[in-house]
Amino acid sequence: MLDIKKIRENPETVKAGLRNRGVSDKIIDEILALDSERRKLLTESESLKNKRNKVSREIGILKKKGEDTAEAEASMRVVGDKISEIDEQVRIIDEKLRSALLLVPNIPHISIPIGPDSSYNKVVREWGNPVQFDFEPQSHIEIGKKLGILDFERASKMTGSGFYLFSGAGARLQRALINFMLDVHVKEHGYKEVWPPSLVNPAAMTGTGQLPKLKDDMYFLPADDLYLIPTAEVPVTNYYREEIIEESLPIYMTAYTPCFRREAGSAGRETRGLIRVHQFDKVEMVKFVEPSKSYDELESLVTNAEDILQRLELHYRVLMLCTGDISFAASKCYDIELWAPAQKMWLEVSSCSNFEDFQARRAGIRYRNADGKVAFVHTLNGSGVALPRLVIAILENYQQKDGSVKLPEVLVPYMDGIKYLKPVC
After folding, report:
1. With bands split at pLDDT 50, 70 and 90, how would you rate the model's confidence at 268?
2. d(C-alpha 325, C-alpha 118), whole Å
3. Which numeric CATH code is attached to 4-102?
4. In the chain, what is the greatest distance between 2 CA atoms, to the nearest angstrom?
5. What is the CATH number of domain 118-421?
């Protein structure tokens, strides 16, 4: 949520930033009008309360003298009714103002490219080289079937389209990747592991910015008023919701969770195999940091995600997202994409974002700064990383001519010494 004071004091700067995201000035004008009316009413209410206090003291003096105060008391009842009326108007405006502010996205950082869509994203760097095959590489769908590890048909029979099932060595590979990533983040990158719920309440979803904007993309359980999490970012960021953090900053947390998203099969999206699914596994990294250090922390967050991919020896690139492609809550975001040779396309496996104090304001997450004053913390999060597309990249980049798949060396200890996944058919 944007700071209303910032909007009030720098309306043109805010509007200019939001225009780069394709947001009309209209909503800011509406917010400013509501804020102006609210301040006017509060001034009127304060004036009436001061008048009531003054007259109440005078009435007390008159009563001590034995004088008639009926007329003065009647006039104060009128004033009291007016104050109550104004307070109700302020309450209604407060609700409208909060509802409007919840629909306004974060202001893009000045350093990111300006553009309406992903074609304006900037490639920051690339690591590794594409694998050269002396045979025609197969897709992860074909590989998974021949290895007997990936089953879309049975998953569809159990649930429906957009779901998948790993079995045997495939299930083991999932577990190996999760354990490998958590071990690296905890033992080497300095994150504290948490195991959060996979269901959260609307307040938690609102705090991180999924609600109300992305409501239709989420799985909702109306009988319980709970949402299935789209990412561990939601529960982990809400760890400190409505609290003043008393621990020293920065605080790093990591978590593995399943993730659930309705938008997986939406029109125009690539949906083959594991590319876009309704349920997937992901290891997430979340940071709570001092505002002055948040952009340095963003760079190190990206480095942590890259370290995972480098250890797996996978060819990837890092993109800085443009104003038209960053998420609703982000101020600056980097995407990391893996190359899938059979798909002949780049696949996003990590998105690392700095939200500045946008989420903290919505969720009420504060800390004490160097002066001892309470202020809003800056929050960041990044995938460290998402599994389905990571599995695609491993299967397609490490496939062998005989149909087997060589496992990255760092995974062998997590697979009890297994170095190759071999065809069963």
Report:
1. very low
2. 6
3. 1.10.287.40
4. 108
5. 3.30.930.10
Catalytic residue among 261, 361, 362, 366: 261
- State the CB neighbour count (10 A cutoff) for residue 239: 19
Amino acid, single-letter form, for residue 367: Y
Q: Are strands 192-193 and 251-260 parallel, antiparallel or unpaired?
A: parallel
Report the range of poorest mean pLDDT among 117-126, 169-178, 266-275, 411-420.
266-275
* Among candidate residues 387, 311, 315, 312, the one with its CA nearest the CA of residue 344: 315
HSE-up of residue 385 (Cα within 13 Å, Cβ side): 30
With b for 16 or more beta-carbon neighbours within 10 A and e for fewer, the 380-393 pattern comes to: bbbbbbbbbbbbbb
Please confirm, yes or no, whether 248 is among the known catalytic residues.
no
- Catalytic annotation on 126? no
* Average confidence (pLDDT) over 84-109: 97
Average pLDDT over residues 218-231: 97
For 26-56, the pLDDT digits (tens) are 999 999 999 999 999 999 999 999 999 999 8
Q: Which of 38, 276, 362, 366 is catalytic?
A: 276
Compute the C-alpha angle 208/369/189, nearest 5°.
60
Using CA atoms, how far apart are residues 300 and 302, in angstroms rounded to an integer?
5
Closest to 324 measured CA to CA, from 129, 26, 113, 131: 113
The strand pairing partners of 285, in sequence order, are 254, 382
Instruction: Say whether 167 is catalytic.
Output: no
- The closest of 276, 253, 311 to 127, measured between CA atoms, is 311
Stated length of the chain: 425
pLDDT per position as a tens digit, 280-312: 999 999 999 999 999 999 999 999 999 999 999
DSSP code string of 285-347: EEEEE-GGGHHHHHHHHHHHHHHHHHHTT--EEEEE--TTTS-TT-SEEEEEEEEETTTTEEE
The domain spans of the chain are: 4-102, 118-421
The question of whether 351 is a catalytic residue gets the answer: yes
The backbone torsions φ and ψ at residue 85, rounded to the nearest 5 degrees and listed phi first, read: -65, -45
30, 44, 193, 348: which one is catalytic?
348
Active site residue 75: no
Q: How far apart are the first and last CA of the chain?
A: 54
Residue type, 107: I
